[in-house]
Specification:
Helices cover 64% and strands 10% of the residues. The chain is of the alpha/beta class. Strands 6-7-8-3-9-10 form a 6-stranded mixed β-sheet, sandwiched between helices. The protein has a 4-stranded antiparallel β-sheet with strand order 2-1-4-5, covered by helices on one side. Helix 10 runs antiparallel to helix 11. The protein is elongated.
């Protein structure tokens, strides 16, 4: 039984085709001279194409006149040469148009692709946490390709037909009875009306296919990205079932689309056959009555062939244009998505002096119904190390996201050196901060590239020194491919500890004034953790440092420790002071020490 895919996506029901077409103009303006020259070549090509039947008519009329006057037949050399030159010119200008316009098409594709990626990188973290990468990837691919297709159809299908129809119309109206032009272009009008109406009806099938195609691609991407999780739970059949269910719905609509297209093609063929028959009957009757010559009959027949051959593709072109407009609409609606976090109109670069951080009465919520931080106030003095500890869900990692301005607070402010982070440029703010996240994600590139990403202009010696300080240099140099070792998708070829050390090296290489460590050593073994802790202490010696930690043993040397619970600071002080309070911190410390002793006893 075929399952319905549900109602078609509203994104296609509210398209803005003319707006989207106008939005393409800036991408064409760069090569407006080329576009104009290509258009000139198009007109010349079609003029030569229309001239071919006229030359053929002249040749036939010459031989007909010579035969009628019983004169010796001679070769109409000039007409034959003209016929050949027109054939050559039509081909030459057609290919010249293709060559000239190619740069316009592909540059527009390049510009749009770059603009879309730029926009995606500017969108907020909230957008990227909510997106489905597989669907976005497929929409991006189809959308950018659609721009090239629209330009291609306009330059190589629509405009040539319009130019050729115009030239033929002028000749037919000037030289022949109105009934011929009426029959010819009446057939064309009926053909186009039929094509447009049926194609509009069929668009719903294509919309559903696109929706299911993106959904299936997203499921496949998620399954592959989470390959290990799928294997851990033995859910290959579950993932394949979800994927196949989606493709089953896609198949249903694809079959309906193909069946309706066959119906459309037959209807188009029937209209063309009727139109050609009608015009040829009229022409044959005119020849029999002596009002037209045989050359005129051949001319009308040749014009019909020239018009209906491209017209036969008009239905396909129209369908493809509609599909391309639907695909392009996804991209331009994505470009219209406003970034949640923007620089203020008068934002100035961060004036970094000492690097002090201050939270003043901060309230924050990811969703209105679930507040994360409540009237939070604390300070990280310049050059000091402040640690934030607490149970999962206390709001610790949210602090780093607010400092980095991935989100804006609902009330209060986050300040660096007395400057509200909302009033400085994001670029300057983020250049001053180095982050080692708990969940490190690497690029599918070499280890060297991933470390050098912290400062792309760093020398090789600086990259290797950062790796040495992060205790990963020996490991990398022991690999068969050394620094050129590929880390795999999201760094999955490396262990959690190896990825964290790459992230630490990357942060060291960046040389920021402010450092944020979010569970930076959570995936390391005890020996490596001790070495890394010494390195981090050395790196952070002259930096303002915020450490978010679960293991309290990693923050005993902090100048101040903040204990968070449900978005509030419930205790603050040094390790010694907090232990003396015998409150939450002391309870957490005792619990973790007990767990450590139990682990030792099990391994003894």
């Amino acid at each position: 039984m075929v399952h319905s895919a549900g109602p078609p996506p509203q994104v296609h029901k509210n398209r803005r085709d003319w707006y989207n077409l106008r939005s393409m103009l800036p991408f064409l303006w760069e090569f407006r001279g080329r576009a104009l020259f290509a258009l000139s070549c198009l007109v010349l090509s079609k003029a030569a194409n229309v001239g071919i039947p006229l030359a053929l008519k002249g040749i036939i009329d010459y031989f007909e006149a010579a035969s009628a006057s019983q004169m010796a037949l001679a070769m109409p050399v000039s007409l034959l040469v003209a016929y050949g030159l027109l054939k050559l010119s039509a081909s030459l200008f057609n290919e010249l148009r293709d060559v000239v316009f190619a740069k316009v098409r592909y540059r527009a594709m390049r510009r749009l692709s770059t603009r879309v990626l730029t926009h995606l990188l500017q969108l907020s973290l909230r957008f990227h946490l909510g997106r489905k990468m597989g669907a976005v990837s497929r929409d991006l691919e189809r959308g950018t390709r659609s721009v090239s297709q629209i330009l291609n159809y306009m330059a190589f299908s629509i405009l040539p037909i319009v130019v050729e129809f115009t030239l033929v119309a002028v000749i037919m109206l000037k030289n022949y009875d109105l009934v011929f032009a009426g029959a010819m272009f009446g057939s064309v009008a009926v053909y186009m009306l039929f094509t447009f109406l049926i194609t509009e009806w069929r668009m719903d099938f294509r919309h559903r296919m696109n929706q299911l195609d993106s959904k299936g691609n997203s499921i496949a991407f998620d399954s592959l990205i989470n390959y290990e999780t799928v294997k851990y739970f033995g859910n290959e059949k579950l993932e394949l079932g979800r994927y196949d269910d989606t493709l089953r719905d896609w198949e249903h609509w694809a079959v309906k689309s193909q069946s309706s297209m066959s119906m459309l093609n037959f209807g188009q063929g029937a209209i063309i056959a009727l139109g050609v028959t009608l015009v040829m009957v009229l022409a044959a009757n005119a020849v029999s009555q002596g009002s037209m010559r045989i050359g005129d009959l051949v001319l009308v027949n040749a014009f019909l062939l020239q018009l209906f051959i491209p017209l036969g593709f008009l239905g396909i072109v129209y369908r493809q244009i509609k599909y391309s407009l639907a695909d392009m609409d996804l991209i331009f609606k994505l470009l219209d998505t406003e970034p949640e976090i923007r620089d203020a109109p008068n934002a100035q670069p961060l004036q970094l002096r000492e690097g002090g951080i201050r939270f003043e009465h901060v309230d924050f919520a990811y969703q209105p119904e679930r507040q994360i931080l409540h009237d939070l106030s604390f300070e990280v003095p310049p050059g000091h190390k402040v640690a934030v500890v607490g149970h999962s869900g206390a709001g610790k990692s949210t602090l780093s996201r607010l400092i980095f301005r991935f989100y804006d607070v609902q009330s209060g402010c986050v300040c660096i050196d007395g400057q509200d982070v909302r009033e400085v440029t994001q670029e300057s703010l983020r250049a001053a901060i180095g982050v080692v996240p708990q969940d490190t994600v690497l690029f599918n590139d070499a280890i060297f590239y991933n470390i050098a990403y912290g400062r792309p202009d760093a020398s090789r010696a600086e990259v290797l020194e950062a790796a040495r300080m992060a205790c990963i240099a020996d490991f990398v140099e022991g690999l068969p491919d050394g620094w050129d070792t590929m880390v795999g998708e999201r760094g999955l070829k490396l262990s959690g500890g190896e990825k964290q050390r790459v992230a630490i090296a990357r942060a060291i290489l960046k040389r920021p004034r402010i450092l944020i460590f979010d569970e930076a050593t959570s995936s390391l073994d005890s020996h490596t953790e001790q070495s890394i802790q010494e390195t981090l202490a050395e790196v952070a010696a002259d930096h303002t440092t915020l450490v978010i930690a679960h293991r309290l043993s990693t923050v005993v040397d902090a100048d101040r420790i903040l204990v968070m619970d449900r978005g509030r600071i419930v205790e603050r002080g040094s390790h010694t002071e907090l232990m003396a309070m015998k409150g939450r911190y002391r309870a957490m410390w005792d619990l973790q020490q007990q767990e450590a002793r139990e682990r030792l006893e099990k391994t003894a």
